[in-house]
Amino acid sequence: MTYECWWRHLRARLLDVLGKRDLATAEYRALGRLQPGNARILNILGYRHAQAREWRVAVDYFSQALTIAPGDAEAHFNLGYAYEQLGEPEQAAAQFERAVALQRTLDRAWYGLGMSCARLGRHQDAVRALSEATALQPMNAIAWYALGMAHHANGAPDKVEEVVRHLFRFDPVMTRRLIQDSGRSDLAHLVRDLRV
Question: String of b and e for 11-35 (b: at least 16 CB within 10 Å)?
């Protein structure tokens, strides 16, 4: 890394700390021009645009980074997330699938894959992906809720009941929401003091 690259990177980080986001982004862009083949800088720029909800620009940066480093599971996840935010679940699912193929322990990519599959009506695939997400993060109430809803959409009432029983152990509020959103008021008796 040249002195100028080092200095610009340090300056960008300092500007971030000072809350000068636009100036920091400009420094990262300048750094990208100095190091056009640097996937890390492209990922940083993609992430910065994602933070600003500039999803199409973020997609462009993450895609460029992946042409340089196609084996970067995090970049595939980030690209999938940006596609999801753009309302493009097919592209999102494809990127999440690549991310988990590269790094099977990337729980948020499994979750993203499950949500994308659910939006596409691929409920069995959603169940599979969300099962992986909950296995990796057993206390993630949001993932358990999504798994319960995927089982509901997949027509598996016994599995919904299993999720309700498990989820109530650590998140009664999310349990209530799952019972309400799945239309399963018949399950309210499974949890003490839970009014639906």
Answer: bbeebbeeeeeeebbebbebbbeeb
pLDDT tens for 48-100 read 999 999 999 999 999 999 999 999 999 999 999 999 999 999 999 999 999 99
Same domain, 144 and 195: yes
Count CB-CB contacts under 10 A for residue 137.
Answer: 16
Count structural domains, the chain.
Answer: 2
Tell me: do 106 and 147 sit in the same domain: no
Q: Degrees (nearest 5) of the Cα angle 131, 121, 99? A: 50
What domain range includes position 142? 138-196
Whole-angstrom Cα distance, residue 14 to residue 29?
15
Q: Is the pLDDT of residue 10 over 70?
A: yes
- Cβ burial, residue 63 (10 Å; 0-12/13-18/19+): middle
Residue 2 placed within a domain = no
